[in-house]
Design goal:
The chain is an alpha/beta fold. It contains 9 helices and 8 strands. The protein has an 8-stranded mixed β-sheet with strand order 1-4-3-2-5-6-7-8. The radius of gyration is 19 Å and the shape is globular. The structure holds xylulose-1,5-bisphosphate (XBP) and magnesium ion. Residues 36-39, 45, 49, 78-80, 146-149, 172, 179, 205, 207-208 line the site of xylulose-1,5-bisphosphate (XBP).
């Protein structure tokens, strides 16, 4: 399932004014921000997906349980079904059996994770709610590009932000090639009708940064405990959170980002990007 909602940001060629220190220009170079979900908009992996995977293993009578550190290694495979399938093969299940079992386990895991989301225990990462509101108030389109399954992605976004907070939502159910393939980002750009030079991606992981950069986007990485030590060299900046009242740690990039991600900060990043040619085109 996917969502495409026309938003006036896509027709708006007038820059938001009043963003700290940025003079208004006739055409805003920042037209959209595309967010990853898992690990970026919400810390879903350790206490969310991992728990649901383990419940599914238990319900199926399998003795497998993924520990917190072990799950960090497993996360290098994107997509829950593929993650299970590879794990089962590593445990000696023949490929044909692993494929069938992984599909069943993943269906159950998706049901369990969706139920967990509906209990309201998953929280947005610090700064995410305010950043999305600020972007929308400035007329900048907001989008999602995730490899997660639409069955849980849509309720999670709805509970944390409201589905109206996004102009475009691309999930793993909409594409065949998951990150690090750029397909999710290319699909989001196509639905936004924007070229990559006028958008910024916000990601948390090496696979995600790779996907965004391969789609031609400038990408900011906002790390978590699982991704802090990954190779995020493709990102224009690396932060430890999107924003916090006491400022964030800038692990790499413009020291001014210590004030956190804002419309003005993201506009500076897109303008400084070598991909930005100084204008806006309507051709994706
Ligand atoms: C997230 C994933 C997903 C989740 C589980 O990667 O790889 O597979 O771990 O969700 P990213 P599903 O943040 O780079 O999009 O079980 O629905 O696949
Ligand atoms: Mg992620």
């Amino acid at each position: 399932m996917s969502i495409v909602r026309p938003h006036n940001a896509l027709q708006n060629t007038t820059a938001a004014t009043g963003a700290d220190n940025d003079p208004p220009s006739a055409i805003d170079p920042l037209r959209a921000v595309i967010f990853d979900v898992d690990g970026t908009l919400a810390d879903t992996e350790r206490d969310g997906h991992r728990v649901a995977f383990n419940e599914a293993f238990k319900a199926a009578g399998l003795g497998y349980q993924w520990s917190v550190p072990q799950y960090g290694d497993l996360l290098t495979t994107t997509g829950g079904r593929r993650r299970i399938e590879r794990y089962l093969q590593s445990k000696g299940h023949p490929l044909s059996e692993a494929t069938v079992l992984a599909a069943e386990l993943h269906r159950d895991k998706t049901r369990r994770f969706t139920a967990l989301i509906r209990t309201g225990t998953m929280e947005a990462r610090p700064g995410a709610v305010d950043l999305i509101s600020e972007l929308r108030a400035a007329g900048v389109a907001t989008a999602v590009a995730t490899t997660g399954t639409s069955d849980w992605v849509l309720p999670l976004l709805d509970i944390l932000f409201g589905l109206d907070a996004f102009d475009v939502v691309v999930t793993g159910s909409d594409i065949t090639d998951l990150k690090p393939d750029p397909a999710a980002y290319l699909e989001a750009l196509a639905r936004l009708s924007l070229p990559p030079a006028n958008a910024v991606a916000v990601e948390d992981s090496a696979n995600g940064v790779h996907a965004a950069v391969a789609a031609g986007l400038a990408c900011v990485a906002v790390v978590n405990e699982y991704t802090r030590d990954q190779d995020l060299s493709g990102a224009v900046a690396v932060l430890d959170d999107m924003a916090r009242p006491d400022g964030v740690s800038v692990l790499r990039g413009d020291p001014q980002l210590r004030d956190g991600l804002s419309v003005a900060a993201l506009r500076r990043l897109v303008t400084a990007s070598p991909r930005h040619s100084g204008g806006v085109t309507s051709d994706p």
